[in-house]
Amino acid sequence: MRKKFKIGLITVNRSDFGIQKELIKKLTNHKKIDLHLIVTGSHFQKKYGNTIKEIKNEKIRIRHSYKIDFESDNNVAVNKYICKYINFFGNIFKKKNFDNIIILGDRYEMLAAAVSCRIFNINISHIHGGETTFGAQDEYFRHAISKLSNFHFVSLNQHKMRLVKMGENPNNIIISGAPSLENIKDINLINRNELEKYLKIKFRNFNFLLTFHPETLNPKNNIKDLNLILKTISKLKDCFFIITSPAPDINSLKMMRLFNKKIENIKFIKSLGRERYFSLLKISDGVIGNSSSGIIEAASFNKYVVNIGARQQGRFQSNNVLNCRCSKIELVNSIKKLQKLNKLNKNKKIKNIYFKKNSSKIILDSTLRFLENSKKNDFKKFYDFNIKK
Asked: Is it the case that residue 156 has pLDDT exceeding 60?
């Protein structure tokens, strides 16, 4: 009988942990897998909500962890963090003889992990490759991770085609959908009264979730844009806005300082956790900002989205997304249009293009199949899809 496959899975923030939670549980309970959960990034940062508590609350075993102080948010600091992450991952990978590392998305911490995997000849399964986000450095990181990876789990067929054009073997690309949407209807949602007590607020006629991340390809306008957004929504007195913290990117600390201002119709909370976030999404009147959650998850709750600026530009969208530039007039008009759409389409079902049934099972089963059929140090070849062999 073959020994268990040693698989590592990396989580660096609240978002990717929520996305991978069902997958982590399945990997943990599988008899052929020895899962090593690797935790680092903003999970240990109080300023980002100390989200390590969410992992511990799930009673999931953490095999490796690394606390890094995110003390500065400029590009020089981020460059230093990447070097530290490469050293951290390298110290684990050189000792543990992993068969596979699962990497999700497009963050610089994940790029560091992918670089270290390649140095130690470890197979990589990459989730959510082939996507585009023209307003963020993640655009580059994501494609770099894809080229360093052996196996791919993409959310849409269009993303598979992009990876094939990048020289990835189509036999190693599986359309799994977005794993964050799996079992979304089975989550124990919190009711309106309990949310009010937890947040110490009173909901109003209209209530919105707002997350605004830095546009890392154009960071000079981040503070100005966020100031404009806060000033604009503060004047919408019949609306209440619950804001969650931005990702730990360039300018994120400066942006969070703006949330220290007390504004009567705004509540800032560092991290809600998956259940509270989805509960608020369920009772809200929509999502505002530039988070991927608005593009990928909101449609599953039949919510319309005001997507601001360029950060998510390039992503395929369901028909619930309203795109606007960061201007007072466009933002106000888009929120009004969102409210009108809510009224007109109250009972209309929004189709989420990112949903696929049994997403995490597809990822788990396919990863095992890949590993069973591949040799440890197989050389990955560039796949020329238009050249006859």
From this structure: yes
Q: Is 40 inside a domain boundary?
A: yes
- Domain shared by 73 and 115, yes or no: yes
SS3 124: strand
Q: Which of 245, 243, 247, 260 is CA-nearest to residue 219?
A: 247
Contacts of 332 (CB under 8 A, 6+ apart): 232, 236
Q: Let me know whether 19 and 144 are in one domain.
A: yes
Q: What domain range includes position 42?
A: 5-182+357-373
Structure tokens at 182: 């799996």
Say what the pTM is.
0.94
- Please determine, for residue 375, whether its predicted confidence score (pLDDT) is greater than 80: no
Non-local CB neighbours of 388 within 8 Å, separated by 6+ positions: none
pLDDT of residue 306: 98
Q: What are phi and psi of 209, to 5 degrees?
A: -90, 135
Contact 333, 313 (CB under 8 A): no
Nearest to 116 by CA among 104, 129, 98: 98
Residues 157 and 39 in one domain: yes
Asked if the structure places residue 113 within a domain, the reply is yes
Q: Where are the strands (E) in the chain, listed by range?
A: 5-11, 33-39, 64-65, 100-104, 123-127, 151-154, 173-175, 206-211, 239-244, 266-269, 287-289, 305-308, 321-324
Local structure of 41: helix, strand or coil: helix
Q: What is the pLDDT of residues 38-92, one digit of tens each?
A: 999 999 998 889 999 999 999 999 999 999 988 888 999 999 999 999 999 999 9
**Residue 329: enclosing H or E segment and its boundaries?**
helix 328-344
Q: Give how far the C-alpha of residue 67 lies from the chain's centroid of Cα atoms, to the nearest Å.
A: 20
